[in-house]
Design brief:
This protein is α/β, with parallel strands linked by helices. It is built from eight helices and eight strands.
Length: about 240
């Protein structure tokens, strides 16, 4: 059995008369014996024949995804990854944590990768303990699905306060947190970035995902054309969420 597996998976790179993809039985038997005995094996290149993971990406969060989402969406589809977004306007970590919406989305989409865009509307809250509990609940809902979290941006009409950003970063880990707080983004109003600013924000995020700094690296192919941005669902700020 081991010999069959090795024949399928191994390509030998030897300085002898062997050519690539051709494995002499005597050499293969010797290779199998060495591996079984735990001996080091030299001059062997192991090719990984498995196909790259074909991700299904779920993106959820507040209305900032209306500007940021189309760019992520187009990068995902250009790469061949189906992408599903859910926008809940003015939503907070507490709203997502205390509703069943995220759980329902995960059951519906069956994502292999999740992108969270939350925290901006949590700013200004004094009681961080409730936000900590909310973030922990969201993490439990996502379980072992690989994820990254796009951190909150500063609100121009509010005093600088990184409390929420730093709390989320601490809870999810620096390698799962894209820090957006200090980004200089042109705004349509005190909060919402312009279309061009959202493009730069998204490109910075995509570059970070592929930089080796993220816990779950993800490579996107830059889109050459634009496809219409479609949400799985969009909720107004007055939406109360589904009961758990």
């Amino acid at each position: 059995m081991l010999k069959t597996i090795l024949t399928t998976l191994f390509t030998l790179s030897l300085s002898t008369a062997l050519t690539a993809q051709v494995i002499d039985d005597d050499i293969l038997d010797s290779l199998v014996s060495d591996i079984q005995q735990g001996k080091p094996v030299e001059n062997v290149v192991i090719d990984n024949p498995s196909e790259p993971v074909q991700h299904r990406i779920l993106v959820f969060g507040d209305e900032l995804l209306q500007g940021l989402g189309p760019w992520i969406y187009n990068h995902a589809w250009a790469t061949g990854y189906p992408c599903f977004t859910s926008i809940w306007q003015e939503s907070t970590t507490k709203r997502w944590a205390y509703s069943a919406d995220l759980q329902n989305l995960i059951r519906k989409v069956k994502p292999t990768f999740i992108i969270v865009c939350l925290g901006t509307h949590d700013q200004g809250e004094v009681d961080l303990s409730t936000r900590e509990a909310a973030v922990k609940t969201i993490l439990l809902d996502m379980g072992d699905i690989p994820f990254v979290w796009i951190g909150p941006i500063a609100v121009k009409t509010m005093k600088d306060d990184r409390s929420i950003a730093d709390l989320i970063r601490q809870l999810v880990g620096a390698d799962r947190f894209y820090d957006s707080y200090n980004l200089r983004l042109a705004r349509e109003d005190e909060l919402h970035p312009t279309t061009e600013a959202c493009r730069r924000w998204a490109e910075g995020f995509v570059a970070w995902l592929d930089s080796g700094e993220a816990a779950h690296p993800l490579h996107f192919i830059p889109p050459t054309t634009s496809v219409p941005f479609k949400n799985v669902e969009t909720h107004k700020a007055t939406y109360q969420g589904k009961k758990r």
